[in-house]
Amino acid sequence: MRNYFENDYTSFRFHDDVLHIIYHQGTSIDLNAAIQIVKDRLTLQEGQSLPILCDVRGIKEINKAARSYLALEGSTLIKALAVIVDPPVSKIMWDFYIRTSNPPIPNKSCESMDEALTFLKKFI
């Protein structure tokens, strides 16, 4: 399995059986971007269901179509999702996403890497 990959929107890295997804600073996510991000993630996972740590602090904006896609199709092969947010902006954005999209996987917003990894450990 490949350990690192980067596309126009994110970088992907495996560490201690968790896939870390870090959005690039100032990234705007539309439906096409969301489709590419999920496609690249699934390719990297090679059919394995994994816990995901996702750092969304770099996202500048994300449209409704992208949020909907990520909530449903984007949940494929994810055991649990910990999202690192930077209050107040990305925390507000994440809370809105959860309320409106209701993803079908365990998820938690976190303010630190340690908090996120503690949440994900029970899903490894």
Automatic annotation (TrEMBL):
<protein>
    <recommendedName>
        <fullName>DUF7793 domain-containing protein</fullName>
    </recommendedName>
</protein>
<dbReference type="Pfam" id="PF25056">
    <property type="entry name" value="DUF7793"/>
</dbReference>
<dbReference type="InterPro" id="IPR056695">
    <property type="entry name" value="DUF7793"/>
</dbReference>
<feature type="domain" description="DUF7793">
    <location>
        <begin position="13"/>
        <end position="123"/>
    </location>
</feature>
